[in-house]
Amino acid sequence: MSETPSSPDWDAPRETAGRNSWSLFDVIRTAAMICVLGLFALVIRRYSLMNPDLEGAGEAHPAVGKTLSTIALEPLTGGAKPVREEDLQGKVVLLNFWGTWCPPCREEFPHLAALAERYGSRPEFRFLSVSCGGGSSEDAEELRRETEAFLEEHGATLRTYHDPGAVTRQSVHDAAGFQGYPTTVLLDSERVIRGMWVGYYPGVEKEIDRAVAKLLP
After folding, report:
1. Which domain holds residue 183?
2. Which of 126, 114, 112, 120 is nearest to 183 (CA)?
3. DSSP characters over the chain
4. Is residue 21 part of a domain?
5. Which residue from 163, 175, 197, 213 has the fewest beta carbons nearer than 10 Å?
6. Would you say residue 84 lies in a domain?
């Protein structure tokens, strides 16, 4: 596994060779980033399958007990509204960072969508599905189109958000290191992290479900 940098460059500027288009270097760099993130998630999944003791590790993650300082999300699809920390006061929050380009994210998606539907009627619970781009910066309109197409493909009506400037992801990184996609963070009513799951493996959705249920009255 690679070492996590102390401050990820979420929005590194691109060299465009004097025109408003991607250079060959941009294409290669973005493709390499997607491959690395996908490989990281695949390694986590295989490791999980070979290590049954990993069950419950999300609630024992080093991030547990730390406070997520900042949440700043903007609406993407489904009539979502902007979300800030004050909007979540007193609520149990499940944050899921994923991407349509990420195979483990696509595999996990229907499970978390079902979980969100199960708890959706609980006023003390919020599920925040944060769609993320695969490059070093994210164009909101392109991200919206890709996310809407993915949701339509899966017959999902889930509200989704995006994370401009990776502000919320940086907050997660500051608390525990942001290691890849998908990443799911469970917060209690005081925004204290109570669970963090990186990657997808069969059964992780049940662990997340149990952890959520523990926090709800």
Report:
1. 52-215
2. 112
3. -PPPPSS--TTPPPP-TTSSS--HHHHHHHHHHHHHHHHHHHHHHHHHHH-GGGTTGGGGSTTTT-B----EEEEEETT---EEGGGGTT-EEEEEEE-TT-HHHHHHHHHHHHHHHHHTT-TTEEEEEEE--SSSS--HHHHHHHHHHHHHHTT----EEE-GGGHHHHHHHHHH----SSEEEEE-TTSBEEEEEES--TTHHHHHHHHHHHH--
4. no
5. 213
6. yes
pTM for the full predicted model = 0.76
Residue-by-residue pLDDT tens, the chain, 217 positions: 223 333 455 543 333 233 333 455 544 665 566 655 556 555 555 544 434 445 567 888 999 999 999 999 999 999 989 999 999 999 999 999 999 999 999 999 999 999 999 999 999 999 999 999 987 678 999 999 999 999 999 999 999 999 999 999 999 999 988 989 999 999 999 999 999 999 999 999 999 999 999 999 8
At 75, which CATH number?
A: 3.40.30.10
CA 195 to chain centre: 13
User: Is 187 inside a domain boundary?
Assistant: yes
